[in-house]
Specification:
The protein contains ten helices and nine strands. The radius of gyration is 17 Å and the shape is globular. The structure holds nicotinamide-adenine-dinucleotide.
Length: 274
């Protein structure tokens, strides 16, 4: 059963591998025998990486160069990098959505049938279907430059850039799964609830520590990074070979409680946060 997830010898890319969920994902994949290529703005401390490319995801040229350097073939892509809502709105959109999509589209031509992509969105993005009209406009932009120009022209949508960027990942996952399916390539995303990583103090800065401590999680605690990494490792493994276009809510029961009226929306976040 050691090989149950079949990562031995597989070539995978992990963005955001320097910290939190991305670092946990990279560590698990090394342990499972994958050839792990890391992309991040900071140098990861994970041991056993096959390569590290220093990339600022706000720069499409750096993305293209790094993906070209990693080369063919790529069996799995883990889009884990992200910025919290304490950063400027445009930067949040560029890293969380425009950069994520640019990495994905750059990697797809290096993928073969059976390859898979897992993206980290957020429970901040679970309402994406209510915003589908405007999200489709963003998704219709052809490339990074087009998406950046769209963001610059839509300050209202960027008022809650973090939540909007995560809705965009949910929508992109659903939409792109259809066209990638024709090539036997899968794409899914996870929507984490509050998770104790180096990003948590940033959320606390934005809305207060008490707010994050009291955030409604039916399981009664925050997640740790590994609890978000494992669902992604599963999704990109052949054990999830019929799963594509999925938004997996790794949120300790938050969405279940919300969507059935058992969590009062009034206790939810203030304007401008997730
Ligand atoms: N921690 C939470 O509670 C939580 C909840 C829901 C979703 N998320 C999402 O999970 C993902 C992972 O976050 P985390 O909690 O592990 O945070 P983290 O801050 O520990 O990790 C984020 C990583 O992204 C990298 N990164 C940031 N800007 C970059 C850039 N311009 N170019 C390249 N890399 C860049 C950072 O260097 C870091 O390694 C993010 O997308 C985040 O939005 C986090």
């Amino acid at each position: 059963m050691k090989s149950v997830l079949q990562y031995e010898g597989k070539r995978v890319i992990v963005t955001g591998a320097a910290s939190g969920m991305g670092a946990a994902t990279a560590e698990i994949l090394v342990e499972l025998g994958a050839e792990v290529h890391a992309i991040d703005i900071k140098k990861p401390e994970v041991t056993g990486l096959a390569s590290f490319s220093q990339v600022d995801l706000r720069d499409p040229n750096q993305i293209e160069d790094a993906v070209a350097k990693i080369g063919k073939i790529v069996n799995g892509l883990f889009n884990c990098a992200g910025l919290p809502n304490t950063f400027p709105e445009l930067d949040v959109m560029l890293v969380n959505f425009c950069g994520l999509r640019a990495v994905t589209e750059a990697v797809v031509p290096s993928m073969v049938e059976g390859s898979a992509i897992a993206c980290i969105a957020s429970s901040a993005g679970i309402g994406w279907m209510q915003n589908i009209g405007v999200l489709f406009e963003l998704l219709a932009t052809p490339d990074f430059a087009g998406a950046k120009a769209w963001c610059e022209a839509h300050p209202k949508e960027l008022q809650n850039a973090y939540g909007f960027s995560k809705e965009a990942i949910n929508a992109y996952t659903a939409q792109r799964s259809f066209t990638l399916a024709a090539h036997g390539i899968r794409i899914n995303c996870v929507n984490p609830g509050p998770t104790d990583t180096p990003m948590m103090p940033e959320f606390e800065k934005a809305v207060g520590k008490k707010y994050m401590d009291d955030f409604p999680v039916p399981l009664g605690r925050h997640a740790v990074a590994e609890e978000q990494a494992w669902p992604m490792v599963f999704l990109n493994s052949p054990r999830a070979s019929f799963v594509t276009g999925l938004q997996l809510d790794a949120d300790g029961g938050f969405k279940g409680g919300m969507f059935t009226g058992q969590i009062d929306p009034a206790v939810l976040m203030p304007e401008g946060f997730e």
